[in-house]
Specification:
By secondary structure, the protein is of the alpha/beta class. Helix content is 38%, strand content 14%.
Length: 343
């Protein structure tokens, strides 16, 4: 039992001194219960602070206390929200953004994002081996040039996003209109963020692309690594639980349903596998239904194939193949005579 506790009869024991919780004073050091408890808590807080600070001295990775050496997650999330406003100017907008001042609003957004993205990339570039020892001004100049190169790719990103929107609308009979998809579908949200993050990934920006996709992961339940190469007209229906690994290659007009894993066959090699193709290639016009797992860097799903629900695939599939899992036998109990029927 803890040295300090509250008993069933509402008595409080602190460091061996017991008194009633209902009393306003008692024969305790310092006179009143309130004063004693305040002093006791203060002393315990000091001891705990000393204990935690001592633990920080062990030199482990988690003991790093320089919070200014990493990109700021809140700032990166804010950058992402503003980029969504640039990509969808009529949907992710503020009250003061109107059509008649669209040019001014976009100009302000671009300048805002470019400035903050450059600052965050300046910090992130320290994680690149070729940038680690560069002076701060050189790093910022490199980050600014990278930010400009990224913004020059915005039309490309929007072209891919438009194709994803069209594919989702064409493939989902439950969608009443495209506005519904933009405003509410997690699949389009996740793919849009991935389109943004992927371009930053291709520009060799450390940390920030993964921070963006993991932010989307936390919002949508869809985990797509920014390194994955994904073609146009991607449709992710429902979306929850989809995982796409970093070296995956996905073609055009691919449909993916909830719970699908496009992953590595084994990660036993750990960091020795970094940069090695560990994830499958999905060719054009492939549909992958709910719960399917497709694993391995040498696995290729041929074009125009259909992978049925809950299939587990670790080897290549020829084009125009249909794969399904045989129906399991179900035991059905008749409520009248308790006989079991196998169907």
């Amino acid at each position: 039992m803890s040295e300090n506790n509250i008993s069933n009869n509402n008595n409080i024991s602190i460091s061996g001194t017991t008194f009633s919780a209902k009393d306003t004073s008692a024969n305790v050091p310092g006179g009143s219960i309130g004063k004693y408890r305040t002093e006791y808590v203060a002393s315990q807080v000091n001891d705990i602070v000393h204990l935690v600070l001592k633990d920080y001295e062990k030199g482990r990775d988690i003991d790093n206390t320089n919070v200014f050496n990493q990109p700021d997650r809140k700032v990166v999330a804010d950058i992402l929200r503003k980029l969504l406003r640039i990509i969808f100017p009529g949907y992710y907008r503020t009250e003061n953004m109107r059509f008649y001042n669209l040019s001014h609003s976009i100009s302000m957004l671009v300048e805002d994002v470019m400035y903050n993205l450059s600052k965050q990339m300046t910090i992130a570039f320290r994680y690149r081996e070729d940038c680690r020892d560069l002076p701060e001004n050189i790093l910022y100049e490199r980050a600014s040039c990278t930010a400009i190169a990224f913004f020059q790719r915005i039309p490309k990103i929007r072209d891919y996003v438009e194709s994803d929107l069209q594919a989702t609308f064409d493939g989902d009979p439950a969608a009443d209109n495209k506005e519904e998809i933009i405003l509410s579908y997690p699949g389009l949200m996740a793919s849009t963020v991935n389109r943004i993050a992927h371009e930053l990934f291709l520009l060799n920006v450390p940390l920030i692309p993964r921070m963006m996709t993991e932010h989307a992961h936390s919002l949508t339940g869809i985990d797509i690594h920014p390194g994955a190469t994904i073609g146009k007209y991607l449709m992710m229906d429902h979306g929850t639980g989809i995982v796409v690994g970093s070296t995956s290659i996905i073609g055009n007009h691919v449909k993916i349903y909830q719970g699908v894993t496009i992953g590595a066959l084994s990660t036993r090699g750990g960091q020795a596998l970094h940069g090695v193709k560990r994830h499958p290639t999905i060719e054009d016009n492939v549909t992958i239904y709910a719960g399917a797992s497709i694993l391995g860097g040498e696995t290729v799903i041929g074009h125009d194939s259909v992978i049925g629900s809950n299939a587990f695939i670790t080897s290549s599939v020829k084009p125009e193949t249909r794969i399904s899992v045989a129906n399991q036998e179900h035991l059905v109990k008749d409520s009248g005579n308790y006989d079991f029927w196998i169907i």
